[in-house]
Design brief:
single chain; 5-stranded antiparallel β-sheet; 4-stranded antiparallel β-sheet
């Protein structure tokens, strides 16, 4: 599954109607509905605020709303774009300002779906990969070099704790963790990020 790289907004104009698609990351239905309400308040003079959102590590929770548009012409095509792109933990809201020309059912489907698709292209996507957080401790002389090597190798350093020694907490893809010991299986040039960790599905790299 994937999610959006950043929140953002993109506008599409179809036969003088403006379709403003706003995207945001969310992890709960309450967060998704709050974002939808924020868009309503921001564009209180618009006629429609259609929405779709997908939640869960496998995108198992999905909702959509036509918000007054003919049934199946707005929320469903918006949701289909999210599903087709394997997007999860994200909400899309398309605000429509009517331009005076009727688009018909087919035109609405294309406009709402196209608005979400264009917005996804605008903000970019991230691959979601399950990771384990592992720890390693080194002395100060090696800390700077290890930090650089880890980041150069593509690891995500979650936290660095400077005490008597320097402890790194590193998000490591599950495929690179020995699940029987919880240790990393790929070695950086200055040390191996080893230690027990807890799987955290849905971390981003």
């Amino acid at each position: 599954m994937r999610t959006i790289k950043r929140p953002g907004e993109h506008e599409l104009e179809v036969k003088k109607s403006r379709f403003l698609c706003a995207l945001a990351r969310v992890t709960t239905e309450a967060e998704a509905r709050e974002f939808i309400q924020q868009r309503r308040r921001l564009h209180h003079d618009a006629r429609h605020h259609c929405s779709a959102f997908v939640l869960g590590d496998s995108g198992e929770f999905q909702k959509s709303s036509d918000d007054g548009e003919p049934a199946g012409t707005a929320g469903v095509p918006m949701l289909e774009v999210l599903r087709r792109n394997e997007i999860t933990n994200a909400v899309a809201v398309v605000t429509r300002y009517f331009g005076g020309m009727l688009l018909g059912a087919g035109g609405l489907v294309r406009a709402y779906g196209g608005a979400v698709s264009a917005a996804l292209d605008h903000v970019g996507l991230l691959e979601r990969r399950p990771v384990r957080t592992v720890t390693t401790t080194v002395d100060y002389l090696l800390a700077g070099r290890l930090d650089n090597d880890l980041r150069s190798a593509g690891y995500q350093v979650a936290d660095t704790d400077y005490q008597a020694e320097v402890r790194f907490r590193i998000n490591v893809p599950e495929s690179e963790v020995d699940t029987s010991t919880g240790t990393g299986t790929r070695t950086a040039s200055t040390g191996n990020p080893t230690g027990t960790g807890t799987a955290r599905a849905g971390q981003y790299r």
